[in-house]
Design a protein that fits this description.
CATH architecture: Sandwich
Radius of gyration: 15 Å
CATH superfamily: Jelly Rolls
Oligomer: single chain
Order of helices and strands: EEEEEEEEEEHHEH
Structural class: alpha+beta
Strand order of the largest sheet: 1-2-3-10-5-8
């Protein structure tokens, strides 16, 4: 989807927010802001937290570590990304992030094209009711997301983090 869009400003602390598995996602730019070309969000990862490993069939994802340090697995590559580091996670490439530190971390995520806003909006209430109900996987499939459950236990054990 492309087309005309209007200028806007999002103040610090502004934007729609959803919380998934303790991780807070705050949308700063949504698909409607830019003709569907991308979405931008701040992701706050609490200390000791693993972001659920997954891959996207439709989107490329680019991340800037704004504060703190995050561990990341992209395919079979494991890295440590400090403040100022950029991460490139191409579509269909499994990836995970975690914060093994004692302080929160903040990451700016740029997803292209946009459209995941609908996924997060539908997912948040589902997870609030149950940890991982069957609807979780159905919704992920609907949005072209594959959950990498087989990575969770090893990442939790290796880095002392939890979902």
């Amino acid at each position: 989807m492309t087309g005309a869009f209007s200028p806007k400003a999002v103040a610090p602390g502004g934007g729609a927010t959803v919380k998934l598995f303790g991780v807070r996602f705050t949308y700063k730019v949504v698909s409607d802001d830019c003709g569907g070309t991308l979405a931008v969000m701040e992701v706050d990862i609490p200390a000791g937290t693993l972001v659920k490993p997954h891959s996207h069939a439709r989107e490329d994802e680019f991340s800037l570590v704004q504060s703190g340090t995050v561990g990341v697995r992209i395919a079979d590559q494991v890295l440590v990304a400090e403040q100022g580091s950029w991460l490139v996670k191409p579509r269909s490439t499994p990836h995970a992030m975690w914060n093994a530190g004692s302080e929160p971390a903040r990451v700016i995520e740029i997803v292209s094209p946009g459209g995941l806003e609908g996924y997060f909006a539908k997912l948040a209430p589902t997870l609030a009711e149950h940890r991982t109900p069957p609807e979780y996987y159905q919704l992920a499939e609907e949005y072209g997301i594959t959950i990498q459950d087989d990575w969770v236990e090893a990442l939790e054990r290796a880095y002392g983090v939890k979902l």
